[in-house]
């Protein structure tokens, strides 16, 4: 089947380079969008499908479910490259899939040479005219129930059809175009004084897990929020409301609003409870050795938080911090440490994503006089600018194993070098 799919990709206009396993697999589009900067709000544009929270383009073809997408109305299908000749780079940013034998297929490391553009006939349809009718912040507890009267959480908005053709719908807001001024206006609309903080990933899934959004099929309803400095009401800002988007659920917006009181501004004080070096074997069992990915358990003293497992980002980390970390783990010093590419030898990225392991610690800063890693400064569950490629690994040594001995460096010689323009 994989050989057949690879052949189909070439014949129908996709270039295909199989990965190590030559893997092509079936995908399941959940929702469709139209993207055309020249026709915002119209049911026409580059055809985008939501698959597992991300957006994909589709190869033009006779098996594509155009009639279903257009709700049974007439349609015109063509190539996006004919309508959007100046947006090729934007089109190519999306992964591309295709239909064969009634199923949707995606091949890793493949790209399409053409992309479907769909125009639905709107002559006899009664399109809804959506407007924002309300919104609130959602933070789910451990039982999946929404916390009451929380000043922070994922921003959920509700849209109402001015024409009355459709029922009210709820969904999220993408962070594209959003800024501090917009955040303040949203919090003021919700009854607070200002926004103490806001953002998207990774903290957005702290409030509502991605799995919950996918389970309940929660769409992204608003994109490209643009508020001028003179705007005093969030409802007066420009935005793409139910007009399609180019976002994924990782870009869902969260807010922490403040009424100006101290109580609603207090951040939960996360502390590191424990730490381990983890090196998984092929059965995802820990080898329990002196080297591995540094994994920490963090907790907060409030009842509504559970202990969380996360990794440590390498930002700010140095040899002194590595030695202190190994000493805290019961060893004498760090024989070696780093991040990519070796961090993936210890725990594959797929495992971190499978168990939704967050990056818990960032910007570790240890002064030369510090003797305990817990006395170093660090951001613990305060957000970060890292990716899992920056996850930290350590190789610790007890000092009595030949493999773990620290290199004993000594100065052999020194020279002064001044090179001319000929590098001589």
Explain what the structure shows:
It is a single chain. The protein is α+β, with helices and mostly antiparallel strands. It contains ten helices and 24 strands. The strands form four sheets. Strands 2, 3, 4, 5, 6, 7, 8 and 10 form an eight-stranded mixed β-sheet that branches. Strands 11, 12, 13, 14, 15, 16 and 17 form a seven-stranded mixed β-sheet that branches. Strands 18, 19, 20, 21, 22, 23 and 24 form a seven-stranded mixed β-sheet that branches. The protein is globular and about 80 Å long. Mean pLDDT is 82; it is low at 1-21 and 402-406.
In short:
The protein is of the alpha+beta class.
Strand content: 25-35%
Helix content: 10-25%
Tell me the total number of β-strands. 24
Summing up helix and strand content along with how strands pair, one would put the structural category as alpha+beta
The biggest beta sheet, please? 8 strands, mixed
* First and last CA, distance: 60 Å
Oligomeric organization of the protein chains: single chain
Q: Characterize the overall form.
A: globular
Report Rg: 26 Å
Average the pLDDT over all residues and give the rounded result: 82
Low-confidence stretches: 1-21, 402-406
